[in-house]
Design brief:
This protein is of the alpha/beta class. It is about 45% helix and about 15% strand. α1 packs parallel to α2 and α4 runs parallel beside α6. The longest helix has 29 residues.
Length: about 250
């Protein structure tokens, strides 16, 4: 099943690979015109754009640092000029996620995560908001994580930033609902993508032991959830966290 996103303009941050690439590609398959945001991997971003174009879609590469206010403004202005006003934002971009014992964590470690999961989504929202308010319609989709519920050890800097992202989601939903703008968060489970490198079978087995469906997800699982939340079918859903993790956080 695909959702009708015909000619909706979408910005997907961190879309050159992994979950972002899958989301951008699937939104394109649903008819959205996609700005594939990335920071430095021109080759991978090009493949995502080409894949959308080859299937008859419309997409452009958008090489911008979404943690920089002026760069974000430039990106949204370019997207508006080449594709149109932004209808859909998927805040997916992330940075390194080191495992650090709490005794060794610094405030800078926490700030490094907040830059991606609070600052960047805020900058992107502020840049697209005037057009969304004018149209009285918009979709903001934040990519969170199940770690907020699981509380992974030696990961407090990352967990706290993802929890902050969930808080933003709920606050923005309350504030922007009057303008027809929905704001939701997808909380993926552990889905192996490039950033994790080679997955060790013991790690995978340990994770799956507490997962009711008994298998790990794939990037398409997150992409279809994003397309749903971006669609008209989800017009009455806002401020919600959608866990896509095979039931890992049922309790």
């Amino acid at each position: 099943m695909t959702f009708n996103l015909n000619k909706k303009v979408a910005v997907v941050t961190g879309a050159s690979r992994g979950l972002g690439a899958a989301i951008a590609s699937y939104l394109g398959a649903c008819g959205a015109w996609v700005a594939v945001n990335y920071y430095h991997d021109h080759q991978s971003a090009g493949r995502v754009v080409d894949g959308i174009l080859q299937k008859g879609g419309k997409a452009i590469p958008a090489c911008y640092d979404i943690t920089d206010e002026e760069a974000v403004k430039e990106m949204v202005a370019r997207v508006r000029q080449e594709l149109g006003p932004v209808d859909i934002v998927v805040n997916n971009a992330t940075g390194p996620q080191p495992v650090i014992p709490v005794e060794q964590q610094t405030w800078q470690n926490h700030l490094d995560q907040l830059v991606f999961f609070v600052k960047a989504p805020l900058l992107v929202l502020q840049a697209v908001l005037p057009d969304m308010k004018q149209k009285h319609n918009g979709r903001i989709i934040n990519i969170g994580s199940e770690v907020v519920e699981l509380g992974n050890p030696e990961y407090g800097h990352y967990v706290a930033a993802k929890a902050a992202m969930l808080g933003l989601t709920r606050s923005w939903a309350n504030e922007l609902g009057a303008y027809g703008i929905t704001v939701n968060l997808i909380a993926p489970g552990w889905i192996p993508v490039e950033q994790y490198g080679e997955v060790v079978s013991d790690d995978s087995a340990g994770y799956l032991a507490g997962t009711p469906l008994g298998h790990q997800g794939v990037p398409l699982d997150i992409a279809t959830a994003a397309a749903f939340l971006a669609s008209d079918e989800a017009a009455f859903i806002t401020g919600q966290k959608l866990a896509v993790n095979g039931g890992k956080t049922l309790s």
